[in-house]
Design a protein that fits this description.
Strand content: over 45%
Structural class: mainly beta
CATH topology of the largest domain: Jelly Rolls
Strand order of the largest sheet: 2-1-7-8-9-6-3
Distance between the termini: 15 Å
Radius of gyration: 23 Å
Number of domains: 2
Helix content: under 10%
Largest sheet: 7 strands, antiparallel
CATH class of the largest domain: Mainly Beta
Shape: elongated
Length: 272
């Protein structure tokens, strides 16, 4: 099977497999496994460490020089990640794997005709395939309500009117990136009954980034200056709580606009 796949290094230079003389043969990208830890013959938990995968490739160009150029281009784009210790992305459909192309082993080649058979080794310490989905929320995207009454307490009050809508997630809880746009003071959002709140003022032309994967909270000022706002989180509720799977209610005051990017993680890229 010849499969069209993209490798994109950390500075967004791309290598296209499946066209331009570079083809990918049968591979193990859709294979996966979990390690486990056991005590007293009982599984305690599952884990995954560094994973390697092999990509058999075929290069077929019209000339020797074209084959040389393609192989040189492949090495240089892959090595830029290695030398900077910044992973690139292997992209299959809507999903990507953060990884490095760590080896390029030549199996055989016909230099005169620009033909190479080789194996690329993909290595990653983040062995989940990720799909990013962004949903924008503004007062026009939800319905308004008056004096909303909830069967549980929040560490703040919703001023009337309040706005509600929903967010759709995949089959498992997801990491997220939340971007809140100013102007707003003490922005608060609940997703699936969990409160995400910051105490502080975000000016017009500023925005606030809450990143659950990096465990960071950053104010980006109008001139691009980035300020650490980790200390301004509401400690009553864990601000990096994953977004629940399925459909969740989203509630906020309606005084500001925000985006939620979900990072759906899978053991293999979704079959489509």
């Amino acid at each position: 099977m010849l499969e069209k796949i993209i490798f994109r290094n950390h500075i967004n230079e791309e290598i296209q497999f499946g066209e331009g003389g570079l083809y990918l043969n049968n591979n193990d990208l859709h294979s996966y496994g979990w390690d486990y830890i056991s005590r007293n013959d009982k599984i305690s938990f599952f884990t995954r460490t560094i994973v390697e995968k092999v990509l058999p490739i075929r290069v077929k160009c019209d000339s020797r020089n074209a084959g040389y150029q393609l192989m040189n281009d492949l090495m240089e784009k892959a090595d830029k990640d290695i030398l900077s210790k910044e992973p690139g992305k292997l992209i299959v459909g809507d999903y990507y794997l953060n990884c490095y192309l760590s080896q390029n082993t030549k199996e055989s080649y016909d230099l005169q005709n620009g033909i190479f058979y080789a194996e690329l080794t993909v290595i990653t310490d983040q062995p989940s395939w990720v799909k990013e989905t962004t949903q924008k929320f503004d007062p026009g995207s939800g319905g308004s309500g008056q004096n909303l009454d909830f069967p549980f307490d929040f560490p703040y009050d919703f001023a009337s009117p309040s706005y509600s809508t929903q967010i759709q997630n995949g089959f498992s809880d997801s990491e997220f990136k939340l971007i809140i746009y100013g102007e707003v003071t003490d922005p608060a959002i609940t997703i699936g009954g969990h409160a995400y709140q910051i105490t502080g003022h975000v000016d017009d032309n500023e925005y606030l980034v809450i990143d659950s994967r990096e465990k960071t909270i950053t104010l980006v000022e109008e001139d691009g200056t980035r300020v650490n706002w980790f200390s301004k989180r509401n400690r009553a509720n864990y601000i990096f709580q994953k977004i629940p799977s399925g459909t969740s209610d989203v509630l906020w005051s309606g005084e500001f606009t925000f985006d939620v990017t979900l990072f759906e993680e899978r053991s293999e890229p979704k079959w489509t």
